[in-house]
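Why do we care about 3D structure at all? Because function follows from shape, and shape follows, mostly, from sequence. That is the central idea of this module. The next example makes it concrete: a single protein chain, its amino acid sequence, and then its structure expressed as tokens.
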Amino acid sequence: MGKAGGRGVSTEVFRVERALRRKGSSERRCLGRALKKAADFLASVRLALVLLVLLTVASVVGVTAWEGIFQSGPFVLVALLFFINLLLCTARQFRTAGLAWRRARCGPWPGWGSGEGAGSPEAGEEQEAKAGSEAGGRTEAASGAEREAGERTYPRQALEAAAASLRRRGWRFLHREAGRLAWGKGLAGYWGSAVFHAGLAVVALGGLLTLIMRSWGAFGLLEGETFVDGRDPYLVRESGALPLHLYRGFAVRLDEVVLDLLPDGKLHDYKARVVLFYRGREVRRGEISGPTPLRYGLLTLYKHRFGYAPAFALLDAAGRELLRFYVTLETNLSGGNANVSYRGDFALPRLPYRAEATFYPDVSGQELAGGRRPRLATHRPGLPAVYLEVWRGSEPVWRGTVVMGREAAFAGYRLRFDHYVKWYGIAAAVDPGVPVLYLGFLLSTAGLALLYGFRPRLVFLWEEGGFLRLRGTTPRPGPLWREELAELRRAVEEAAGVEVWGERNP
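And the structure:
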């Protein structure tokens, strides 16, 4: 009774364990199906199109209305989903390319024909069966003819000559199976689409890194001044959600601002000669202009702004100097390089006056009397002057042109224009996404070169009934492929000295 009870308990335990295993297996299958559906959705073309539309709309809004959208959470989420979509599509592309590459090199080959449907497994199986039945009938007829002719055999030298002809034309021997020799050309083209998708995924990754980890700040320097990060304030400062705090404490010294002028004296570009210091030592020295920023690792210095800074001395009625100061004037480029102006307003220190100043690099030969405003004839340094308008509240006090070294007198004070220097605005950015973006563009370019520069082709050569057979296949058949295959068949016939049968031979 005890044994029977023990067997009953064991059977019941076995049934429970089997039920639990079935339940666990069913749960794993359900989880696998759910993960596959999620992966299919994330890798779908429909999702990619929707995300592209959203990114395009957000980019238009960011450029025209609200720049802060690029740092917003929804935009980062859409960009992250787009990156995941590209990543999954790239993985599938590499899997497909790997299978096609391996099949091309080692077989079984997907098709034998060169016409419509060449390259598909179904077409390959049908053509293989058809070729086998035709070959059987021709082989029987050929064997009877050989017996009548007295054991006629196919010379091996012809096959070797045909193979040598293929090799001279750049075809590479791949594999031999069942007497058939497989040759390939342009097989790197199988990887074109996969490499292109990988480049797009890397570009998306670089954009994500820029959105999340980029830090950016702008500052201005007079010629001869030095800006130190962490000590001097930035004019503007922006950063992503997780900024990469590198190169803290770097310093930039502005040695000179160089103007690039056209032959007629108009402004073409402006450059800054700077020295970059990091951790107390000089690490880079060079020029900053529009097309050429200065780089050190992930730190990049860009051109931001430029202007003049006239130096003034304020004197009292007795001629005693009260103070000296610089006034940084903005460069107005709204009218194009032909209508550049350098102007700004400032408050006179310790006095209830404000002034508006416009700088002119050269006023030679112009009539300056009577408070007339000069015109900007050239940007070449000559006789510099400042046109001043001094106000007390809304009441004008003095208006006129002050040449360098001269004074403007008003209300018992004198304002002397001593000299001037140029100033330069520099934008410093630490962006880990930039090298990733460059890598992505290189990969995408390489993928396009593989996709359109290499067309995978396969040809198969074998002996059949005293003749040579030559057939070919390509993923992208067309008239050019058929012409190439016909020319190749003629070259093999000439080299082998025997007739070569192709797709349309009886």
